[in-house]
Amino acid sequence: MSARTEDDVIIGLEVHVQLNKLHSKLFCSCGLDYHNAPPNTHVCPVCLGLPGSLPVLNKSAVQSAIKVALALNCEILPQTQFYRKNYYYPDLPKGFQITQYDYPISSNGYLDIEGDQGIRRIRINRVHIEEDPGRLVHEGTIDRSKFTLIDYNRAGVPLLEIVTEPDLRSPKEARRFLNKLRNILEYLDVFDGDLEGALRADANISLAGGARAEVKNISSYKGAERALSFEIVRQRNVLRRGEVVVQETRHFDELRGVTVSMRTKEAEHDYRYFPEPDLVPMRIMTWVPDIRETLPELPDGQRARFLEEYGITEDHAASLTLDLKLAQFFEDVAREIDPKISASWVVDVLKGELNYRDLDIDAFKAEDLIEILKLFLDDVITEKSAVTIIRTILDYGGTPAEIISKKELAKVKEDVVLSAVDEVLLECDDAIADYRRGEKKALNYLVGQVMKKTRGRADPQDVRLRLLSKLG
Ligand code: ZN
Ligand code: MN
C-alpha cells in the first residue's frame, strides 16, 4: 500500500458535448439526423470544406450555448469571435477547425457536485462553441486496422467545449461531474446523451510533482472513472521507479481498460490560431436577458422544490432529479397519490424493476402506476400483487385491470377470509396443538393453509392477526 493518498491527484476535464437537438449543423444547413444514415450522406460543400464555400453561423446554436453557459454560472463575454485552429488530420477536411480561442462565448463559471465530504464547487474555465470533426472508423482496433474510413456526417455538428479548472480530486468526482453535466444539459433540452458520440471527455491528470498526461477518448461515465483510475496507478508506478511522468497525450482503450501513449503533447502555439476571417465578431449581450428568462428549472432547484413541496426524503429527491423524465413521471403520479407514497413506489420499486430490465421510464405509463396504487391503497389488491402487476406490464404489456382479472389478483372479501380461517382451525388440530405447546412455527403453517384456501389473494399479515385472535 502506497503512503500517498488521493489528495495529490489533480484532474481537469475538457468535455465536448454535441448540441444534437438542433435542426442543422453549425455552419451549413445539413441535418443532424445522421445516426442511422449511411456514411457521408449528410454533407455539403461547406462541411466538406470544398474551396469557395463559406460558413453561415447557426443562430440557434449560439442561443443554446448561451443557455448552457448561464446554467453553468458563467459570465457571457461582451464580444465573442471564432478562430481557426490549424492541424492536418483527415477528420478535418478544411485543414483547420473553426473554434474559439481568445474571446470565447463565456468564461468563469462553476458547477457544484456531491463530494465525499459535502458539496464541492468545480470551477469552469470556459464554455466555447466549435464544430465537430468527422469520424474516423477503423476495422478492429486503431493500431491493427489496415485502413481508415472517414465519415463526414458528423463534420460541422455544433459542439460545446466545456473546460474545468483542475479542481477534481478523484476519478469518482470526475464521474459525478460528468453525470451532473449531462443531467443539466438534458434539463435544458439541448442534448440527447443517448446518441453515439454525444459526450466525449478528455482528462488532464497529474500527481503532485509530476507532469500531466492528457487522456483522450473517454466516452462514458464509467469509462471516465476507469481511465482515470488506471492512469493514477500508472503514474504512481512511474514515480515509484524514480522515473519522470512525461507530458503526453494518451488514448483510452475502452475494451482493454488501459491508456496507451499516442504522442507527446502538442503545445498551444503548434495550432497557429488566428481569427476566422469568414465570420464577423459577435456582440450577444443583448440576447442574454431573454435567454435567461427561458431557462427551465434545473436539477438542483427541482430537488430543493421536491423536498419543500412534497416533503419526500433527501434520497428520493436526489434520485428523482437525476433524470428529468423520471422527475416528471413522479410529479404526474404525485398529483393523484400521496407524494411520499408516490416517491417510494417510483424510486424504490419501479426504478429498480426498470434498471433490472435495462429499460427507462418511457417503458411505463404514469396512469398505470396511479391505477395500481389506487387499487392498493383502496385495499383491492395486496402490495405483492401491485409489484406483480408492474412486473407483468414491463414483461408482457397489458393494463392493470386485465392483469388483475387474468391472474385473479383481486383480494378476497373479508367474509371469505374469515370462513377460510375457520375451516383451517377445524382441519388442523395437530398444528394447533403444536402452536399451543409453544411451537411458534406452527402459526406459519396455519397462515399458509389459509393463503392456500384463498389462492394467495388474502393479506398474510391480516390472516396472521385473525388466527392469533381466534387462537387466543
Ligand atoms: Zn453541410
Ligand atoms: Mn475542442
Q: Can you tell me about this structure?
A:
The chain has 472 residues and is an alpha+beta fold. The protein has 3 domains: 9-291, no CATH class; 299-407, no CATH class; 414-471, Orthogonal Bundle (Arc Repressor Mutant, subunit A). The protein is 39% helix and 19% strand. The strands form 3 sheets. A 9-stranded mixed beta sheet has the order 2-5-6-9-1-10-11-12-13. Helix 1 (59-71) crosses helix 4 (288-294). The structure holds zinc ion and manganese (II) ion (MN). Zinc ion binds at residues 25, 28, 30, 43-44, 46-47, 156.
How do the strands and helices of this protein lay out in sequence?
Blueprint: E1 9-18, H1 59-71, E2 75-76, E3 83-86, E4 96-99, E5 106-115, E6 118-131, E7 135-138, E8 148-151, E9 158-164, H2 171-187, E10 199-207, E11 213-218, H3 221-240, E12 248-253, E13 258-264, E14 274-275, H4 288-294, H5 299-310, H6 314-320, H7 324-334, H8 339-356, H9 366-377, H10 383-396, H11 400-406, H12 414-427, H13 429-436, H14 441-453, H15 460-471
Parallel strand pairs: 11-12
Antiparallel strand pairs: 1-9, 1-10, 2-5, 3-4, 3-14, 5-6, 6-9, 7-8, 10-11, 12-13
The protein binds zinc ion (ZN) and manganese (II) ion.
